[in-house]
UniProtKB/TrEMBL annotation, chain A:
<keyword id="KW-0472">Membrane</keyword>
<dbReference type="Pfam" id="PF01127">
    <property type="entry name" value="Sdh_cyt"/>
</dbReference>
<dbReference type="InterPro" id="IPR000701">
    <property type="entry name" value="SuccDH_FuR_B_TM-su"/>
</dbReference>
<keyword id="KW-1133">Transmembrane helix</keyword>
<feature type="transmembrane region" description="Helical">
    <location>
        <begin position="129"/>
        <end position="153"/>
    </location>
</feature>
<feature type="region of interest" description="Disordered">
    <location>
        <begin position="1"/>
        <end position="38"/>
    </location>
</feature>
<protein>
    <submittedName>
        <fullName>Succinate dehydrogenase hydrophobic membrane anchor subunit</fullName>
    </submittedName>
</protein>
<keyword id="KW-0349">Heme</keyword>
<feature type="transmembrane region" description="Helical">
    <location>
        <begin position="90"/>
        <end position="108"/>
    </location>
</feature>
TrEMBL record, chain B:
<keyword id="KW-0472">Membrane</keyword>
<dbReference type="InterPro" id="IPR039023">
    <property type="entry name" value="SdhC_prok"/>
</dbReference>
<dbReference type="InterPro" id="IPR014314">
    <property type="entry name" value="Succ_DH_cytb556"/>
</dbReference>
<comment type="similarity">
    <text>Belongs to the cytochrome b560 family.</text>
</comment>
<feature type="transmembrane region" description="Helical">
    <location>
        <begin position="21"/>
        <end position="44"/>
    </location>
</feature>
<dbReference type="InterPro" id="IPR000701">
    <property type="entry name" value="SuccDH_FuR_B_TM-su"/>
</dbReference>
<dbReference type="Pfam" id="PF01127">
    <property type="entry name" value="Sdh_cyt"/>
</dbReference>
<keyword id="KW-0479">Metal-binding</keyword>
<protein>
    <submittedName>
        <fullName>Succinate dehydrogenase, cytochrome b556 subunit</fullName>
    </submittedName>
</protein>
């Protein structure tokens, strides 16, 4: 069935106890260009974001579940964690790389997911805008701080 | 509320709600977790004394809860991916949800002692 985008609905009898404006029944297809749609910027950002959620999700299964097994389950669970334990792991570029990739993927995946949640619940334009400013600020800060800590870690700090 | 406008989804709606709640929860935890780990740049003492709170029983219980949230989000995320990319995914989405729940219950039962061992030992000797 074709979806009408011009405002008339064919073949529907409108009775008096229903709204008589046919546009009340109209649901615009998601990709319809309206007055409020920017004319330029015809990028695939939303599709790429959707794809990123799935690709990062698959990688995060290994990184995050591996992280939980090492930190919370093996060798006595959390009790073994200490500065010395961290120093031992970050002496290896492999674990540094693991943690760095996990940090970036989890933060970007989580931040993009939070963007969806904000878009769903914050209805006023200004509320949405400021929540996203807060989200981006917190995300950039956390990613940079974490990256800096991994790269500048000093096992001999006193 | 006009009659018949309340969306009453079935399992799919609840798995979506759980996926969203766990996702938001994990994000907030991750934010805090990067901050506490950053204390390794301050001093071993600062880091160790903060990590000490992670070993107390209330936080230990929260770690088990966090593991539950992450494990559900991860397994259900794989289900969402299968629904999107596997031709038969939409057809089997319900069976996949019960598979997710079953695997989740089994793994959480298996993780019960390893994660909570310190607390259990303190409580029951
Ligand atoms: C462990 C492996 C993970 C997998 C397989 C996974 C998978 C997914 C997928 C496929 C989606 C998209 C759902 C959709 O479009 O309907 C999603 C959403 C989301 N994820 Fe993850 N994820 C994982 C880890 C994480 C982590 C570590 C975080 C937090 C830092 C996170 C936070 C979120 C959030 C906030 C959403 C948005 C939820 C929504 O829109 O309802 N996820 N996840």
């Amino acid at each position: 069935m074709a979806i009408e985008t011009t405002g008339s609905i064919s073949g529907v009898e409108l009775t008096n106890d229903r709204p008589t404006d046919p546009s009340a029944f109209l649901i615009e297809p998601p990709r319809t260009r309206t007055k409020r749609t920017g004319r330029k910027s015809r990028t695939n950002f939303e599709m790429l974001a959707w794809l990123f959620m799935r690709l990062s999700g698959v990688v995060l299964v290994f990184l995050v579940l591996g992280h939980l097994i090492i930190q919370l389950i093996l060798d006595g669970g959390v009790t073994k964690i200490s500065f010395a334990f961290v120093a031992g792991r970050w002496a290896s570029p492999f674990w540094q790389g693991w943690d760095l990739l996990m940090l970036w993927l989890a933060m970007l995946h989580g931040a993009n997911g939070m963007r969806t949640v904000i878009n769903d619940y914050a209805e006023r334009d200004t509320t949405r805008f400021w929540l996203k400013v807060l989200l981006v600020t917190a995300t950039v800060f956390t990613v940079l701080l974490g990256t800096l800590v991994i790269f500048t870690f000093d096992p001999n700090i006193s | 509320m006009p009659a018949g406008t309340l969306y009453r989804g079935r399992e799919g709606m609840w798995s979506w709600v759980a996926h969203r709640v766990t996702g938001v929860l994990i994000f907030f935890f991750l934010f805090a977790h990067v901050l506490d780990t950053a204390l390794v740049r301050v001093s071993p003492q600062a880091y160790n004394s903060t990590i000490a709170t992670y070993k107390t029983w209330p936080v230990n219980l929260m770690e088990y809860g966090l593991t539950a949230a992450i494990l559900f989000h991860a397994l259900n995320g794989l289900r969402v991916i299968a629904v999107d990319f596997w031709a038969k995914g939409p057809k089997y989405q319900r069976q996949m949800l019960w598979t997710v729940v079953t695997v989740w219950v089994v793994l959480m039962a298996g993780a019960f002692y390893p994660i909570l061992q310190e607390t259990l030992r303190n409580w029951f000797g």
